Structures are given as structure tokens and as C-alpha cells.
Amino acid sequence: MATALPLQATPAHNLSQSSQAETAFRNKETSKFIPRGDTVVSLNYFQPPEDGSIPFNFVEEPPKGQPPRNFGDFDIKVPIKDIRGHEDEYTLDRDAFKVALNVPSSAERDFSSDESIKKNYYPEVEKLILDNVPSSNRVFLFDHTIRRSSPNARRAPVARVHIDQTLKSATQRVHQHLPGEAERLLKGRYRIINIWRPLNGPVQSNPLGFASSSTLKDDDLIPIEHRYPDRTGETAGIRYNEGQKWHYLSGMTNNERLFLECFDSYAYNQGTEVQGGRVPHTAFSDPRTPEDAIGRDSIEVRALVFGP
Ligand code: OGA
Ligand code: FE
């Protein structure tokens, strides 16, 4: 098994000698917890229902007599590449993921109140998208999820290869959130992009893995009915294929953002450069992570992105 690469000490010219020593100590302490570099990890993949029926899962309690879901899963080892140092080699149109580095610190400090997150963090995410997603001119943020690794957390990291939406549910989302304008907006380009970041970075454990959209075959994308109490959405499970190329960004910090594009309507238009526009992703546990590493906390904000 590969060992973690040492983290370069960060320059700290403007710090006093004692705080330089402290910073160096902290970095050294943290760096021993951060696995870096290419490795092999086990990912949990979708297994279709044995009887050939349409896969479903219930978001909340299933109705009496029904299972929470009718499909299985299995673990398989895959190579995974650390894109640290190569962040700018990946694009939304080819890979359906993208990294932003050196993002200014958020005005939101606690990430504990939804109202406060919407007030402070949402406008920053909207601007980040408009500045970084080519040809975007309008953003509607419709949801966010805080994940914490503590045992009693409401939502934890998801160790299951998936994509949040499909053509059907992305289109539904436009109708649901922008009913008056949906018909018009659906004639243009519409995308769903999650903006993901750690809350307690640099990430020591349970990082997020993502496979390039350009390596995912349409046939390996399996729609799953996502049954809410009052409506049915659609997510996608991924059939394993060794052609799928996995990546992660080691030691992701609070000033870095991952763009996870779950859907791009241009993938359905002839003559565009878009290679699928959908990124399989999952949390994974890295066998190099020490036992006493800190659990990852994160937030993802989900955005409808329009234009031109
Ligand atoms: C997402 C997602 C899982 C995780 O951002 O869409 O699936 O563990 N995240 O953060
Ligand atoms: Fe997801």
C-alpha cells in the first residue's frame, strides 16, 4: 500500500517566529493524516434488481410491506487518481467536474442555520458559478445538504456511486422551482451543478471520488425512482465498467470548491462538445487514513444553471 506523501510546509513570511513554528507543527501534525497520491480504493456500486424490475428507493419510511429499496450493491476495487497539482486539466464539458482553488473565505462561519447559510453562503455560490461556468447567465440554488461524520449526524457522507439527477428529474426541477418560466428556460441550455466543499478541511478522511463523464457510457447509467412521500424524482445508479476513470482531490481545503455537474441538456444536442455532462461520484474510505483522523464534514449546494 502506498504511504502518504509529505505535505510541503506552507510559506509563512509574515508570521512571527513562534507562530511560524506553531504553523509548521500544525501542518506536520495534519499532514500525517492526509493520504495523497494515486491509489486503489474500494467503491460501492449499484447492482440492478434480480427480477429485472425498475429500481426504486423510498426517501423516507417505505409504505407498509415494501422494502426501503429493491436493488443491491457490491464493493469493487478501482484505481483512483489524485488530481492535486493538475486541477486545471479538467473541464465541465469533458469531465463534468471542475475545481476552483483559492476561493475567498465565506461570510458564513457556522454552517448550522439554514437561514444563515442562504443569506451568507448562497450569494457567494451564485457568483462563483457565474464566474466559473462558461456561458452561464442565470443561477437558481434549490437545495443544500450538510454532511457530518459524527455518529448522530442527520446526513453523513454517501459511500455509494451515484448521480443525483437524470434528464427526467432535471427537467422536473426546472418546472418545480421556476414554474412560470420553465417552458422558455427548457428551450435553452440547462444544467444542474453541485458546489461541494469541506467544512473542516483539509479533508483527512472520507474524501469525495468522481469519475470523468467522458469515461461513462450511457448504457451504464441506470435510472432509479427516488420516491418521496408526495412525488417521485429520479437519480441514477452506475453499472460498473472498468473504463470509468476515478479521481479525487487530496486534502481538499475550506477554500477549495468542487463543481459536480449532474446534468447538462447540451449532452442531448447534436454538435456540442459536451461529453455526457454527468459525473458519477461517491465518498470513499481510503485505507491509508489513520484510525484517529478527523471525520469529514461538508456542504453541497445544488444549482440550476442556465444560459445562453
Ligand atoms: C453530492 C454527494 C456525497 C458526500 O454532493 O451530491 O453525493 O459524501 N455528496 O459528500
Ligand atoms: Fe450526489
From TrEMBL:
Region (Disordered): 1-30
GO molecular function: oxidoreductase activity
Polar residues composition-biased segments: 11-22
Superkingdom of the organism of origin: Eukaryota
Family from the record: Belongs to the asaB hydroxylase/desaturase family.
Protein's UniProt name: 7alpha-cephem-methoxylase P8 chain
Native source species: Amylocarpus encephaloides
Lineage of the species this protein comes from: Eukaryota, Fungi, Dikarya, Ascomycota, Pezizomycotina
